[in-house]
Amino acid sequence: LVGGFIRLYCYRRLRTLFTFELSIRRDHHLIKTGIYSVVRHRSYTGAFLAAIGVALCHLTPGAWVTECSGLPPGVVVPIWIVGLSIACAGLDARMCKEDRMLRDRFRTEWDAWAARVRYKIFFGVY
């Protein structure tokens, strides 16, 4: 639930600046306050936490996937880890592209913000 609430907060905070396809709008401006003063890509933090929540719900003993899917024990979790690893690699590439686009548009403003907010997803980690 926490991941979902973080994503919802980000959608509401960014308003019309939020898009699923990377884009810079004519009226674009950097959001540097609130949750964005701590980590640059907080929406992806929410997505990652939501994925962990889904795993905890669906990959634990007693869950449908582990009990009724017909997959051998010990196979489901590694499959999920591989899928999450692929998704994380894609998100990392997307974050780098998003950072480049914002830097190209806002230059010194983005540089100053990125120097203050060094972490992309998790404060103190990455």
From TrEMBL:
Q: Which top EC class is named for this enzyme in its record?
A: transferase
Instruction: Tell me the Gene Ontology biological-process terms attached to this UniProt entry.
Output: methylation
Q: Which GO terms describe its cellular component?
A: endoplasmic reticulum membrane
Query: What does the record give as the reaction this protein catalyses?
Result: [protein]-C-terminal S-[(2E,6E)-farnesyl]-L-cysteine + S-adenosyl-L-methionine = [protein]-C-terminal S-[(2E,6E)-farnesyl]-L-cysteine methyl ester + S-adenosyl-L-homocysteine
User: Does the keyword S-adenosyl-L-methionine feature in the UniProt annotation?
Assistant: yes
Q: What is its main location?
A: endoplasmic reticulum
Q: How does it sit in the membrane?
A: Multi-pass membrane protein
Q: What is its EC number?
A: 2.1.1.100
Q: Where in the cell is it found?
A: Endoplasmic reticulum membrane; Membrane
- Keywords (A to Z) from UniProt: Endoplasmic reticulum, Membrane, Methyltransferase, S-adenosyl-L-methionine, Transferase, Transmembrane, Transmembrane helix
Q: Which InterPro entries match?
A: ICMT_MeTrfase
Q: State the Gene3D superfamilies in the record.
A: 1.20.120.1630
* GO MF annotation, one: protein C-terminal S-isoprenylcysteine carboxyl O-methyltransferase activity
Question: Where, by residue number, does the polypeptide cross the bilayer?
Answer: 44-65, 71-93
Family as reported in the entry's similarity comment: Belongs to the class VI-like SAM-binding methyltransferase superfamily. Isoprenylcysteine carboxyl methyltransferase family.
Output this protein's name.
Answer: Protein-S-isoprenylcysteine O-methyltransferase
The organism's taxonomic lineage, starting at the top: Eukaryota, Fungi, Dikarya, Basidiomycota, Agaricomycotina
